[in-house]
């Protein structure tokens, strides 16, 4: 670890310093080379590009970021992390921003992505493993978008790609305890 | 040789052909996969997207179970592999984080466990030469592009396997099976991952770009090591596209002449048999 990185991670009380400490990423070192936005597979669909987000954060002006779609579109592919000359994983910063903003989102697309993650984790918490058909059905019901993938669902069912009963682990109590130990999920009380 | 085996949730349902083919070809090569008892879901993208600690402790529970077996741990799904490896990396390099993980899971972790992807286990623990010797039906006339995706090779300091920009391990494996691996520039591009369900329009564009480039490269099939890449490339494509997508283990099984292959391949949403006709005719 370079001296610069160590200094950055040993952040002060500024917003940027706190973010660097919390995320473990030296966000102050960003010098706007733009490699993250150039390589990001979601960049084209984002309202604020990854390098623009980094500049807002470095300036301590995160307000537009909390309600952006961009922080929800990041899937953590880590292309930015592999290419950043300053060793910043912007994907990890995005995780951190979702938690710090506690799930505020700009529009319906961000809301749907958050809902998907929550349904996934609800299924995991109940069974210890994720039961795809029920998780997807619950997600579809909650979004009201019931028919968009029905065709694919039927094809998958015919190919035996959906099992009707969930796989459940024995130590489900242990899994519930892990959820309790790690605290609330972003954007919700449980 | 024995390894602890972490199949992952989707290998029991939508990607069962990956699980079946992985067990079959490893068995052929005397690599025994011992399923980790009572393993839990790794949390995938969803856990670390909403709670960093949860994203590390869920896979850490599995690391604790693996440690008890005394065997190294191999994960077939790239997403599971990446989450297990991320937790492993945090335990080995970040003492503060490791302390929190110990406290939250109630487990004590030693530093001796090694986490591998199935591709890594096959290419490094078994080795290309031994695989080549086992080939009884070379995959002649099959031109493939190898699609590694994101989580097998990134972030490089965590995965420490192959190259994050231009990996070659799967290409070498395909060449050993008698197929012709073609070089293309989308080896490690993203398939759209879980946004396939909740932002499918974005993912459709990404998937069609990938398949278009595969076609322009001259390939007649895509080979993958990831269940989500496989699902997205099959589900989110323009219906006019017919290029099949294989798990690398399925092509190993084909080259080994295993009769169980047909059962795996019948589970695909995109019919792979037209492309395989010249291979199976030999």
TrEMBL record, chain A:
PROSITE patterns documented for this protein: 4FE4S_FER_1, 4FE4S_FER_2
Residues in 4Fe-4S ferredoxin-type domain copies = 20-51, 62-93
Keywords, A to Z, come to: 4Fe-4S, Iron, Iron-sulfur, Metal-binding, Oxidoreductase
- Say yes or no: keyword Transit peptide present: no
Q: Which GO terms describe its cellular component?
A: plasma membrane
Q: Name one GO molecular function term.
A: metal ion binding
Task: Write one Pfam family the protein is assigned to.
Answer: Fer4_17
Name it: 4Fe-4S ferredoxin-type domain-containing protein
What is the species of this protein? Desulfotomaculum copahuensis
Lineage here is: Bacteria, Bacillati, Bacillota, Clostridia, Eubacteriales
From TrEMBL, chain B:
Q: Any idea which UniProt keywords this protein has?
A: Oxidoreductase
Per its UniProt record, what InterPro entries does this chain match? Cys_rich_dom, HdrB/HdrD_reductase
Q: Which branch of life, at top level? A: Bacteria
Q: Which residues form the Cysteine-rich domain?
A: 4-85, 144-233
Concerning Pfam families, the annotation shows: CCG
Q: What protein does this entry describe?
A: Heterodisulfide reductase subunit B
Q: Name one GO molecular function term.
A: oxidoreductase activity
Q: Does the keyword Oxidoreductase apply?
A: yes
């Amino acid at each position: 670890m370079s001296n610069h990185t160590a200094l950055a991670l040993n952040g002060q009380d500024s917003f940027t310093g706190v973010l660097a400490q919390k995320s473990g990423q030296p966000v102050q070192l960003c010098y706007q080379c733009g490699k993250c936005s150039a390589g990001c597979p979601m960049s084209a669909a984002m309202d604020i590009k990854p390098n623009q987000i980094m500049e807002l954060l470095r300036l301590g002006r995160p307000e537009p970021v909390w309600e952006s779609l961009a922080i929800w579109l990041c899937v953590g592919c880590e292309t930015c992390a592999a290419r950043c000359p300053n060793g910043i994983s912007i994907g990890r910063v995005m995780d951190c921003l979702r938690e710090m903003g506690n799930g505020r989102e700009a529009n319906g697309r961000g809301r749907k992505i958050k809902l998907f993650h929550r349904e996934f984790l609800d299924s995991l918490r109940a069974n210890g493993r994720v039961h795809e058909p029920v998780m997807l059905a619950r997600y579809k019901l909650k979004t009201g978008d019931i028919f968009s993938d029905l065709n694919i669902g039927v094809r998958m069912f015919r190919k035996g790609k959906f099992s009707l009963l969930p796989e459940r682990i024995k130590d489900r109590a242990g899994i519930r305890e892990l959820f309790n130990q790690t605290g609330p999920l972003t954007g919700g009380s449980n | 040789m024995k390894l602890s085996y972490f199949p992952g949730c989707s290998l029991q349902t939508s990607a069962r052909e990956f699980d079946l083919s992985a067990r079959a070809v490893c068995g052929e090569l005397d690599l025994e996969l011992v399923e980790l008892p009572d393993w839990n879901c790794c949390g995938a993208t969803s856990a670390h997207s909403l709670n960093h600690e949860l994203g590390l402790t869920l896979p850490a529970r599995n690391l604790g179970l693996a440690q008890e077996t005394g065997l190294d741990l191999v994960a077939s799904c790239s997403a599971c592999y990446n989450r297990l490896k991320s937790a492993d990396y945090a335990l080995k390099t970040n003492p503060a984080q490791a302390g929190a993980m110990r406290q939250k899971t109630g487990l004590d972790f030693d530093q001796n466990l090694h986490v591998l992807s199935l591709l890594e286990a096959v290419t490094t623990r078994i080795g290309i030469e031994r695989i080549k010797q086992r080939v009884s039906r070379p995959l002649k006339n099959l031109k493939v592009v190898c699609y590694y995706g994101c989580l097998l090779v990134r972030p490089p300091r965590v995965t420490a396997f192959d190259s994050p920009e231009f990996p070659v391990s799967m290409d070498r494996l395909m060449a050993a099976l008698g197929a012709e691996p073609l070089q293309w520039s989308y080896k490690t591009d993203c398939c759209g991952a879980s946004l396939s369900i909740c932002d499918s329009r974005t993912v459709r564009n990404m998937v069609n770009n990938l398949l278009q480039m595969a076609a322009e490269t001259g390939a007649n099939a895509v080979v993958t090591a990831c269940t989500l890449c496989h699902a997205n490339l099959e589900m989110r494509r323009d219906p006019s596209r017919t290029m099949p997508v294989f798990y690398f283990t399925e092509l190993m099984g084909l080259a080994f002449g295993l009769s169980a292959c047909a059962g795996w391949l019948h589970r695909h949403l995109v019919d792979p048999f037209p492309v395989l006709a010249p291979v199976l005719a030999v």
